[in-house]
Amino acid sequence: MAREPVVATYSICACDLGAGQWGVATQSKFLAVGSVVPWAAPHVGAVATQAYANPRFGPDGLELLRSGCSADEVVARLTGADDGRRQRQLGVVDAQGRGATFTGVECHEWAGGRAGKGYAAQGNILISRATVDALVDTFVSTTGRPLAERLIDCLAAAQAAGGDSRGQQSAALLVVERDGGYAGLSDTLVDLRTDDHTRPVEELRRLYGLHVALFRKTPREEWLPIDDTLRAEIEERLAALRQPTLEAWAGVENLEERIDGTDVIDPVVLAALRGAR
Hints:
Radius of gyration: 21 Å
Number of strands: 13
Order of helices and strands: EEEEEHHEEEEHHEEHEHHEH
Strand content: 25-35%
Largest sheet: 6 strands, antiparallel
Distance between the termini: 57 Å
Number of helices: 8
CATH architecture of the largest domain: 4-Layer Sandwich
Protein backbone atom coordinates (compact mmCIF):
# COMPACT_ATOMS: atom_id res chain seq x y z
CA MET A 1 0.00 0.00 0.00
CA ALA A 2 1.33 3.46 -0.94
CA ARG A 3 2.28 5.70 1.95
CA GLU A 4 1.19 9.29 2.30
CA PRO A 5 3.83 11.95 1.65
CA VAL A 6 5.70 13.18 4.70
CA VAL A 7 4.53 16.72 5.40
CA ALA A 8 7.59 17.42 7.56
CA THR A 9 6.91 20.86 8.85
CA TYR A 10 6.28 23.20 11.71
CA SER A 11 2.94 24.88 12.30
CA ILE A 12 0.89 26.82 14.81
CA CYS A 13 -2.88 26.86 15.22
CA ALA A 14 -4.06 29.88 17.18
CA CYS A 15 -6.93 32.20 17.94
CA ASP A 16 -7.73 35.72 19.06
CA LEU A 17 -11.03 35.36 20.86
CA GLY A 18 -11.48 39.11 21.24
CA ALA A 19 -11.20 39.64 17.49
CA GLY A 20 -13.20 36.50 16.68
CA GLN A 21 -10.33 35.09 14.61
CA TRP A 22 -8.82 31.62 14.24
CA GLY A 23 -5.84 30.74 12.08
CA VAL A 24 -2.99 28.45 11.11
CA ALA A 25 0.51 29.26 9.87
CA THR A 26 2.93 26.65 8.57
CA GLN A 27 6.27 26.18 6.77
CA SER A 28 7.83 23.06 5.28
CA LYS A 29 10.32 21.51 2.90
CA PHE A 30 7.30 20.31 0.96
CA LEU A 31 5.58 21.61 -2.16
CA ALA A 32 2.45 23.71 -1.45
CA VAL A 33 2.15 22.92 2.25
CA GLY A 34 -0.90 25.18 2.40
CA SER A 35 -2.86 22.66 0.35
CA VAL A 36 -2.64 20.06 3.13
CA VAL A 37 -1.90 21.41 6.61
CA PRO A 38 -4.15 24.41 7.53
CA TRP A 39 -7.89 24.27 8.23
CA ALA A 40 -10.04 26.78 10.13
CA ALA A 41 -13.60 28.04 10.54
CA PRO A 42 -14.76 31.09 12.55
CA HIS A 43 -16.18 30.37 16.02
CA VAL A 44 -15.40 26.71 15.37
CA GLY A 45 -11.63 26.37 15.58
CA ALA A 46 -8.43 25.59 13.71
CA VAL A 47 -6.67 22.36 12.75
CA ALA A 48 -3.20 21.53 11.43
CA THR A 49 -2.48 18.03 10.08
CA GLN A 50 1.07 16.97 9.16
CA ALA A 51 3.90 14.36 9.33
CA TYR A 52 2.52 11.35 7.38
CA ALA A 53 -0.45 13.64 7.06
CA ASN A 54 -4.05 12.51 7.11
CA PRO A 55 -5.79 15.33 5.17
CA ARG A 56 -9.18 14.16 6.43
CA PHE A 57 -8.18 15.32 9.90
CA GLY A 58 -8.89 18.86 8.64
CA PRO A 59 -12.57 18.69 7.64
CA ASP A 60 -13.34 15.90 10.09
CA GLY A 61 -11.72 17.83 12.92
CA LEU A 62 -13.74 20.97 12.14
CA GLU A 63 -16.92 18.90 12.06
CA LEU A 64 -16.13 17.47 15.49
CA LEU A 65 -15.49 20.97 16.79
CA ARG A 66 -18.84 22.12 15.38
CA SER A 67 -20.52 19.28 17.27
CA GLY A 68 -19.16 20.68 20.55
CA CYS A 69 -16.03 18.58 21.08
CA SER A 70 -13.11 20.22 22.84
CA ALA A 71 -9.65 20.37 21.28
CA ASP A 72 -8.51 17.44 23.43
CA GLU A 73 -11.56 15.41 22.45
CA VAL A 74 -11.00 16.10 18.76
CA VAL A 75 -7.39 14.93 18.97
CA ALA A 76 -8.40 11.80 20.86
CA ARG A 77 -11.21 10.90 18.47
CA LEU A 78 -9.30 11.56 15.26
CA THR A 79 -6.16 9.73 16.28
CA GLY A 80 -8.05 6.93 18.04
CA ALA A 81 -9.86 6.06 14.83
CA ASP A 82 -6.76 6.21 12.63
CA ASP A 83 -4.55 3.14 12.20
CA GLY A 84 -1.74 5.42 11.01
CA ARG A 85 -1.72 7.55 14.14
CA ARG A 86 1.79 6.51 15.16
CA GLN A 87 3.09 8.55 12.20
CA ARG A 88 0.64 11.45 12.43
CA GLN A 89 0.97 14.91 13.87
CA LEU A 90 -2.00 17.11 14.71
CA GLY A 91 -2.75 20.47 16.30
CA VAL A 92 -6.18 21.81 17.28
CA VAL A 93 -7.55 25.00 18.83
CA ASP A 94 -11.26 25.03 19.63
CA ALA A 95 -13.91 27.75 19.81
CA GLN A 96 -13.06 28.50 23.45
CA GLY A 97 -9.36 28.88 22.70
CA ARG A 98 -8.28 25.57 24.21
CA GLY A 99 -5.29 24.04 22.44
CA ALA A 100 -4.22 20.41 22.01
CA THR A 101 -1.40 18.77 20.07
CA PHE A 102 -0.47 15.20 19.18
CA THR A 103 2.75 13.64 17.91
CA GLY A 104 2.79 9.96 17.00
CA VAL A 105 5.61 7.88 18.42
CA GLU A 106 6.94 7.03 14.95
CA CYS A 107 7.21 10.63 13.68
CA HIS A 108 10.73 11.46 12.56
CA GLU A 109 12.91 13.30 15.06
CA TRP A 110 12.96 15.92 16.21
CA ALA A 111 9.20 15.84 16.58
CA GLY A 112 6.91 17.24 19.25
CA GLY A 113 4.55 20.01 20.20
CA ARG A 114 3.26 22.38 22.86
CA ALA A 115 -0.29 23.56 23.51
CA GLY A 116 -1.80 26.18 25.76
CA LYS A 117 -4.38 28.92 25.95
CA GLY A 118 -5.07 30.04 22.40
CA TYR A 119 -2.46 27.93 20.60
CA ALA A 120 -1.19 24.53 19.54
CA ALA A 121 2.33 24.41 18.05
CA GLN A 122 4.03 21.35 16.56
CA GLY A 123 6.75 20.21 14.21
CA ASN A 124 8.56 17.16 12.90
CA ILE A 125 11.95 16.51 11.28
CA LEU A 126 13.10 19.70 12.99
CA ILE A 127 16.61 20.79 13.95
CA SER A 128 15.52 20.75 17.60
CA ARG A 129 12.83 21.55 20.13
CA ALA A 130 13.85 25.21 19.82
CA THR A 131 11.71 25.59 16.69
CA VAL A 132 8.49 24.77 18.53
CA ASP A 133 9.56 26.84 21.53
CA ALA A 134 10.08 29.83 19.21
CA LEU A 135 6.56 29.42 17.79
CA VAL A 136 5.06 29.48 21.26
CA ASP A 137 7.25 32.18 22.77
CA THR A 138 6.60 34.52 19.86
CA PHE A 139 2.86 33.96 19.93
CA VAL A 140 2.62 34.56 23.67
CA SER A 141 4.80 37.68 23.56
CA THR A 142 2.85 39.41 20.77
CA THR A 143 -0.58 39.57 22.38
CA GLY A 144 -2.56 42.59 21.23
CA ARG A 145 -1.33 42.63 17.65
CA PRO A 146 -3.35 41.34 14.65
CA LEU A 147 -3.42 37.55 14.59
CA ALA A 148 -2.14 37.28 11.02
CA GLU A 149 0.93 39.37 11.82
CA ARG A 150 1.61 37.36 14.96
CA LEU A 151 1.47 34.09 13.03
CA ILE A 152 3.92 35.29 10.39
CA ASP A 153 6.25 36.41 13.16
CA CYS A 154 5.90 32.96 14.72
CA LEU A 155 7.05 31.33 11.48
CA ALA A 156 10.00 33.70 11.15
CA ALA A 157 11.12 33.08 14.72
CA ALA A 158 10.79 29.31 14.27
CA GLN A 159 12.89 29.42 11.13
CA ALA A 160 15.55 31.49 12.87
CA ALA A 161 15.59 28.88 15.65
CA GLY A 162 16.39 26.09 13.18
CA GLY A 163 13.19 25.15 11.40
CA ASP A 164 12.73 22.06 9.25
CA SER A 165 16.03 20.15 9.21
CA ARG A 166 15.60 19.48 5.48
CA GLY A 167 15.36 23.17 4.60
CA GLN A 168 12.65 25.49 3.28
CA GLN A 169 10.23 25.33 0.36
CA SER A 170 6.69 26.51 1.11
CA ALA A 171 4.66 28.41 3.68
CA ALA A 172 1.02 29.30 4.23
CA LEU A 173 -1.18 31.56 6.35
CA LEU A 174 -4.91 31.07 6.90
CA VAL A 175 -6.97 33.35 9.16
CA VAL A 176 -10.77 33.31 9.36
CA GLU A 177 -13.30 35.72 10.84
CA ARG A 178 -17.07 35.73 10.44
CA ASP A 179 -17.85 38.05 7.48
CA GLY A 180 -14.31 39.41 7.75
CA GLY A 181 -13.24 38.56 4.20
CA TYR A 182 -13.78 40.09 0.79
CA ALA A 183 -16.74 42.50 0.59
CA GLY A 184 -17.95 41.23 3.98
CA LEU A 185 -19.30 38.17 2.17
CA SER A 186 -16.54 35.70 3.07
CA ASP A 187 -15.22 34.28 6.33
CA THR A 188 -11.69 34.01 4.92
CA LEU A 189 -9.82 37.03 6.24
CA VAL A 190 -6.38 35.95 4.96
CA ASP A 191 -5.46 32.96 2.79
CA LEU A 192 -1.92 33.28 1.42
CA ARG A 193 0.47 30.62 0.17
CA THR A 194 4.07 30.49 -0.98
CA ASP A 195 4.13 27.15 -2.78
CA ASP A 196 7.77 26.90 -3.93
CA HIS A 197 10.34 29.48 -2.84
CA THR A 198 13.86 29.57 -1.45
CA ARG A 199 12.73 31.85 1.42
CA PRO A 200 9.03 31.08 1.76
CA VAL A 201 8.40 32.86 5.06
CA GLU A 202 9.91 36.09 3.78
CA GLU A 203 7.83 35.79 0.61
CA LEU A 204 4.72 35.12 2.70
CA ARG A 205 5.36 38.33 4.64
CA ARG A 206 5.69 40.25 1.35
CA LEU A 207 2.39 38.83 0.11
CA TYR A 208 0.74 39.76 3.38
CA GLY A 209 1.90 43.33 2.89
CA LEU A 210 0.13 43.37 -0.47
CA HIS A 211 -2.95 41.89 1.13
CA VAL A 212 -3.01 44.65 3.74
CA ALA A 213 -2.62 47.36 1.09
CA LEU A 214 -5.47 45.98 -1.01
CA PHE A 215 -7.99 44.76 1.53
CA ARG A 216 -7.46 46.18 5.01
CA LYS A 217 -9.73 49.06 6.01
CA THR A 218 -8.23 52.40 7.05
CA PRO A 219 -10.18 53.80 10.04
CA ARG A 220 -12.80 56.19 8.71
CA GLU A 221 -11.50 59.06 10.82
CA GLU A 222 -8.21 58.86 8.92
CA TRP A 223 -9.80 59.30 5.49
CA LEU A 224 -9.11 62.61 3.76
CA PRO A 225 -11.84 65.06 2.71
CA ILE A 226 -11.84 65.73 -1.03
CA ASP A 227 -11.82 69.51 -1.34
CA ASP A 228 -11.72 71.39 -4.64
CA THR A 229 -7.93 71.30 -4.86
CA LEU A 230 -7.69 67.57 -4.20
CA ARG A 231 -10.61 66.83 -6.52
CA ALA A 232 -8.86 68.68 -9.34
CA GLU A 233 -5.68 66.68 -8.72
CA ILE A 234 -7.58 63.38 -8.71
CA GLU A 235 -9.37 64.21 -11.95
CA GLU A 236 -6.09 65.24 -13.60
CA ARG A 237 -4.37 62.04 -12.58
CA LEU A 238 -7.31 59.92 -13.73
CA ALA A 239 -7.33 61.67 -17.08
CA ALA A 240 -3.63 60.95 -17.52
CA LEU A 241 -4.37 57.28 -16.79
CA ARG A 242 -7.35 57.35 -19.19
CA GLN A 243 -9.72 56.33 -16.42
CA PRO A 244 -13.21 57.89 -16.26
CA THR A 245 -13.70 57.76 -12.49
CA LEU A 246 -11.81 56.99 -9.32
CA GLU A 247 -14.04 53.97 -8.78
CA ALA A 248 -13.21 52.61 -12.24
CA TRP A 249 -9.48 53.03 -11.68
CA ALA A 250 -9.71 51.43 -8.22
CA GLY A 251 -11.41 48.40 -9.76
CA VAL A 252 -8.54 47.98 -12.22
CA GLU A 253 -6.04 48.20 -9.36
CA ASN A 254 -8.03 45.86 -7.05
CA LEU A 255 -8.57 48.69 -4.58
CA GLU A 256 -12.36 48.73 -4.84
CA GLU A 257 -12.73 47.66 -1.22
CA ARG A 258 -11.14 50.97 -0.22
CA ILE A 259 -13.55 53.17 -2.17
CA ASP A 260 -16.68 54.62 -0.52
CA GLY A 261 -18.25 57.67 -2.13
CA THR A 262 -16.68 60.74 -3.71
CA ASP A 263 -16.40 63.15 -0.79
CA VAL A 264 -13.59 61.40 1.09
CA ILE A 265 -10.68 59.20 0.07
CA ASP A 266 -8.69 56.51 1.80
CA PRO A 267 -5.08 57.76 2.04
CA VAL A 268 -3.87 54.37 0.79
CA VAL A 269 -5.88 54.90 -2.41
CA LEU A 270 -4.58 58.44 -2.82
CA ALA A 271 -0.97 57.29 -2.41
CA ALA A 272 -1.51 54.53 -4.98
CA LEU A 273 -3.08 56.98 -7.43
CA ARG A 274 -0.21 59.42 -7.02
CA GLY A 275 2.26 56.63 -7.71
CA ALA A 276 0.39 55.21 -10.71
CA ARG A 277 1.92 55.44 -14.18
